[in-house]
Design goal:
By secondary structure, the chain is an alpha/beta fold. It has a single domain, classed as Alpha/Beta hydrolase fold, catalytic domain (Rossmann fold, 3-Layer(aba) Sandwich), CATH 3.40.50. The protein has eleven helices and twelve strands. Strands 1-4-6-5-7-8-11-12 form an eight-stranded mixed β-sheet, sandwiched between helices. Strands 2-3 form a two-stranded antiparallel ribbon. A two-stranded antiparallel ribbon has the order 9-10. Helix 5 packs across helix 6. The longest helix is centred in the N-terminal third of the chain and has 21 residues. It is globular and about 50 Å long. The two termini are 28 Å apart. The relative contact order is 0.15.
Length: 344
Amino acid sequence: MSGLCRKFFQERIMTAMKKTFFRRNLLALTISALVLTAPYAVLADQALTVEEAYGLEEVEYDYQEFPLERAGIALHLDRITVADTEPDKNILLVHGLTYSSHEFDIDYEDYSLVRFLAREGYGVWRVDVAGYGRSGEVEDGFTPDSDYAGEDINAAIELIVAETGQDKIDVLGWSWGTVTSSRYAAAHPEHLNKLVLYAPIISGLGAYDVEDAFHYNTWEHAADDFQRDSEGGYDLDITDPVIIEMYCSSCWHYDRDYSPNGGRRDLLVDPSEILIDLDAIQAETLAICGDVDPYLNYDLVNTCLDHLPEGSELHIIPGASHAVMIEAPYYHEFQDTVLAFLEK
């Protein structure tokens, strides 16, 4: 669901005032980004690589795409590994609403969740649900709803099992991806090892009649999940301006002008409607989120362990929001917590 408009009841309203406000923020981001280039000049003078400066070894990665089709639509499935390795651990990352799986691999400093997990010995797979990102288009944007996406996830898992010979695969879903991956987990438990629900949307966000089959994407909408400061600008103590620029640029590049609205129609229902049947999940599950995420029902989040299998965990990061995996004060805690759960 990444980027779901906070004011979802007015998701297509864009006033001249907001446009002016956003231009002001882009100017601030540009100036900040220019300032942040200074350390790279120092690195050059000292003959240091970025990897060395941030405590990373020089690492090369292999990237591979795997042909996959379901229901007559080509699905984008890729894998990143450390070069010249064949990992015996594999994890599938499942994107949220509106924007596709590129969001897990913002290759700046050590932010990328994909590369972090690859360095820890995983084959890291990503799938784009039909109609999203690099997958084939759909005629009806309402077709890829949560259950449909769950079957796309299953198709990806079946291929991963066949390619790797590993019978049990880990899955991590973000936002709407927690709904879709939980639907997969309930319907197809046979190949699921551990499940990570990152920012779990356990119940409806509020009843709203989604009339358009497609969501019309904007740069401003892509940036909507980043935390704001007291004056309404982006809080640059929370999110590096380079991250904001790279994230939004990737959304514009991969997701283009529009994306399917089936998932949005699923989410915009009364808060009393349960979207994730926690009791139906059989695998050990980590629920991880920030404590200021505007999309979460914390009453349900805080009691999720009452319904999840033994060995499941709940981890809430104070101060973090929906985009915790790329928020400067919190992303290391996020990465370390996910890894510790997968490795236990």
